[in-house]
Amino acid sequence: MKKFLTLSMLTALVLVGCNKAAAPTTTTPAADGTTTTTTAPADNGVVADAPKECPNMSSVVVKSEETGTVNVVATNSWYVEQTPDKGTFYFTNYTFDPQSAWGHTYTDTDAMAYFSVATKDKKAVANGVWDASKKDDNNKLSDTSISSKKTSRGLIGDKKKVEITYFGSDYVCGDVSIDDGYGSITGKFIAKYHKWTSSL
What we know:
The chain is built from one helix and 13 strands. By secondary structure, it is mainly beta.
């Protein structure tokens, strides 16, 4: 009887795992000829264990001529620390591997936005503001770009600001406002924290 119950429970778990539906991706055409691409995760993008200083969902919107409008959810929002004083935020509409940011083969609808934050005095990144218009500031914002199958576009100019409101070993949260008139990355985020490790 015990063997039968154990076998029944294992079979049920396997069937539940196999029946889990893949996250649907929707592409919506807009009047101006661009499209909006949204990938809905199984959890609807809600972070159940969000720290109180963080939103429980990301509301980052990426826009460019090549990608159209892409709504990025928390599941696809990451902060990858290269060293304590430098890290890169990644926002994608596909499943992202934080150990291999450039190991993805883009499909026609895939998009990635990213930017790096660092400190000139080499102190660890923490809560604070990174503002490109403040040239002499200790906090340096760089590598602001949007990538797709068609192209990788750097976002230029001084209209670039990132505020980190929570920095932990679980999540990094805040607000981004980057816009050069041709592309933009805007919204509040809760990004999963990952410490990159070298394979060498």
